[in-house]
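Quick one:
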Amino acid sequence: MFSPRTWGRTPWRRSSPTAAAAVFTYVLGNAAGAAAASSLTRRLDESHSGAEEQLNDAMAEAREIAMRHPRLRARLGTSAASAYTAAPDDTFEFGLQALLDGLARRATA
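Output:
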């Protein structure tokens, strides 16, 4: 078992606060977007204004504005315009596993 006296002798223990912060930041970053969207939808629903309808109206207005600009208009037909927040189902798990694998490799180096 490790004690505070042995921490300085094990390189991976010295970096464990940094590793924990990296994992925490990754998880928090992935959760922030979904939490913000959920919060916005809930607030709009509480005001009885129809969140989905308001979001659709805002997107329609954005499309109308984009049509006036050639570069934006060109992007409207791409997948980036319709699913820019979409990601494959296993994206979070893949990223977290890659992060953990990198930390494990670093700890054994």
